[in-house]
Structures
1.
Amino acid sequence: MNALNTKVVVGLGAAGVFGAVGGGAWYVSRPKNVRSKLISEGLTLVGSSHRAWRSVFLTHSGDNEFMSFSGVGSGNSDKEAASKVMSACEKVMKVSVDSKDYTSSLNKARRYCTTPNFKTIETKVLFSDREIASEERDWKNLFTAHKEDGAFIEKVKKANLDATITKDSSSDDAKEKVKKFCNDLKVQPPNSAGIADYEKYCLQTPLIQRFSTKILAVDL
């Protein structure tokens, strides 16, 4: 009888030890804050790309709750807004699981601080960390870069219902037509056929990117 009791006690003791180990492992691995919770759910966080945050802003800019969460004002440019969104998400990611604000913070982070459901070609391309054309010099440079491409000229003609543009047109005359062509493409659904033309003809060229990088370096 004593031997039987001893075996039972030993068995229960072993179970208790393994139970404690298992419980300890769970405690160590459980999420500590919003960031680790999102990662444990397999969600992809936005990261540090400023272009990606611009994409997030453009995707959610029609959402009043998002605008309140991010602190973006009506006068902010999309680049200024991107910085505000990134800061808001960095703050909410640090909220502890023990905080009274944890649940609401987690819900906001899920909606606004992870890879969004892209609505347009523009937001999808920006999120991939490629710079889109947006300024006068971009449109002129794009025309100069692609004017020998007959398909490009025809697409610009069609977008503008204007048959007068040719490869011999000046970049000053062509810039607004290239802009319309690209702007028509960027608002199309992200998986539409137009994305191929947008990526080929409407991204900043290496020359413009190098120029922009030099300006940024000087400002810093």
Note: The mean pLDDT is 86.
2.
Amino acid sequence: MKFVHWLVLGCVVALPLSASAQWQWLDKNGKKVYSDQAPPPDVPEKNILRRVGPPPAARSTANPNVDAPPLAEGTADAPAAAPKAAAAPKPTGVDKELEEKTKKAEAEQKAKQAAEEAKIAKAKADNCALARQSKATVDSGIRLAKVNAKGEREIMDDAARAAEQKRIQDVINSDCK
């Protein structure tokens, strides 16, 4: 049982070592970027704050062919092909995450806007239906009553009926398109 405890303790102690293989550099805007991949080739050496291995000068003196791709036989341009292959920019995880966040935010914004437009369209449709129903009632010629500020019923005269018809027609013109 004690061996298992020592094994678990060893795993827990070794766990943070995986975090030490991280790159840290300053991008063009001066923001710190953390990644498990090397920075793009356009980042100058002075902006690389932390790297996974020894600096490139120490690496090149120890074994210059460590990072070089295998040379193709019979080609005179093989050494020139190595810088072209190394110059290919590698996309970093930070850019992908940023793009995903912006796309997600834009999608949420569009969804909110579409929901708000649908809500407004539904309200206009309801107002239109009520206005048409009210217009049919006012145009029918039956006696209509309104409740005044005191809470008493008042029968609408011809002037009040004409004003109500005009108000309802304005609502129909604005909401029923």
Note: Strands lie at 23-26, 32-35, 48-50, 145-147, 153-155.
3.
Amino acid sequence: MLGVEALNGGTAMHAFVQRQLHEMSHHVGMYSPLTAKSVLERFWASGETSWDACFDTPHLFCTQMAINVARVVSPVLPES
């Protein structure tokens, strides 16, 4: 969503999104963020402005998600 909104943000916002997607790919060890980066770069260069124009072909973007549940799950205390 940020990538489509970045259309209005100019080159500085484009560079930020590109950099973040590249770093995300490196961090999670997956290619999907680089695919998203390529899709967005084509979209930005196209001059189109609609969401549907950005995703003119089907794409599946999956990334590994990690959730810190330390505050959600109470620790199990050993019985005395």
Note: The chain has one domain: 1-80.
